[in-house]
Amino acid sequence: MWSKDIAADGFDLRRTGINPDFWYPLARSRNLKAGKILGVSFAGEPIALARTRAGTVFALEDRCAHRQVPLHMGVLSGETLRCAYHGWCYDLSGKLNRVPYLSEDSRPRCRGVRSYPCREAYGHIFVFPGEPAKANQVPLPSIAEWRSEQYLTMRFMRTVNCHYTFMHENLMDMNHQFLHRRLMGNVQPTMLDWRKGETWIEARYKFRNNDAKPHRGSSFMMTGAGQSGAPVERDFELMVVRTEYPYQTLKVWPAHSNATAVSLWAAYVPLDREQRVNRSFGILTVRKPRVPGLAYLMWPAMRYFAELVFRQDKMIVEVEQKAYDAQGADLNQEVFPVTLSLRQLLMKCGVAPHAAAKPVPAPTVV
């Protein structure tokens, strides 16, 4: 009988917080209109995203320094965010620059609110929740296929009721394709090899379909690359899955071709302080077929197929979280070497419970 206090490999990964010293997508760009404010969160810390009429995006602690009322309930006037309660005014840096009912001479020393480094890229709004001084030293994730005319792009944003580490394990371990048997057919993954570094781990899989005919669902995404790229001797589909902390990528090459057919970039953002709920962001690029217009005709079916796969993955990781909650510990008897190494990486790169959500107080200003 396993101990209720620790997992079989000596630690409980589900109590490891995500490291805040990276750029995380907190919202889709289209969800934040000009002149509007949007309330989001990172590991239990509320954050207000705002976009000025001129298009500038900024991020502030979503609590007025006066009465702790959420600032996303307020009003954006030019480059000033006004709290909905008493109209206290904050600039883009979080500095309190006006209390409407007090003169400048009589206004006491009051702190502002914390501001977060904020950037917009890939159709998303990224925030750096960690130490602000580190933001300029940490690059945004790189998505090579973005804006390439050879690819079409799907974006996904879903709330999943599980610890973010379950998401990492699910994507990294392609042995779970049995879960998708009705969508993928009798696809058999075989790991070719895997490598790891200080902050990353990568696994290569070959896929063969053991059915006489390829399954229609699993063939959707491969339409474009099968007609493109230089020929190679490889007679199987190749998939490479990589965790470059804290992000994950997946790339697929069809048999006899070196052209990437499918590329996925994913990030999992904890929402609550216990980090048992995450918002999963995905950017999926699919190579266009050579036949003009065919990709656009097939696009609804491709997206529907991708949604079905994700629904199954979402279902299974949420079941895992329920099992963890019922047992009170991580009792998984993991045997796959890639997953075991991934768990160590997530533990090493992560932080102690709740440390990721530790507030950084704003300075006191006049």
Characterization of the model:
The termini are far apart. A seven-stranded antiparallel sheet has the order 13-19-18-17-16-15-14, with helices on one face. It has five helices and 20 strands. The longest helix has 34 residues, at 294-327. The relative contact order is 0.19. It folds into two domains: 24-140, Rieske Iron-sulfur Protein (3-layer Sandwich); 151-349, Naphthalene 1,2-dioxygenase Alpha Subunit, Chain A, domain 1, CATH 3.90.380.10. The protein has helices at residues 164-172, 181-184, 216-219, 294-327, 337-349, and strands spanning 24-28, 36-42, 45-51, 57-61, 75-77, 80-82, 89-90, 96-98, 110-111, 115-116, 118-121, 124-127, 151-160, 187-196, 200-209, 237-244, 247-253, 262-270, 278-287, 364-365. Helix 1 packs antiparallel against helix 5 (337-349). It is an alpha+beta fold and 366 residues long. A hairpin with a 7-residue loop joins strand 18 (262-270) and strand 19.
List the helices and strands and how they pair.
Blueprint: E1 24-28, E2 36-42, E3 45-51, E4 57-61, E5 75-77, E6 80-82, E7 89-90, E8 96-98, E9 110-111, E10 115-116, E11 118-121, E12 124-127, E13 151-160, H1 164-172, H2 181-184, E14 187-196, E15 200-209, H3 216-219, E16 237-244, E17 247-253, E18 262-270, E19 278-287, H4 294-327, H5 337-349, E20 364-365
Antiparallel strand pairs: 1-12, 2-3, 3-4, 4-10, 5-6, 6-7, 7-8, 9-20, 11-12, 13-19, 14-15, 15-16, 16-17, 17-18, 18-19
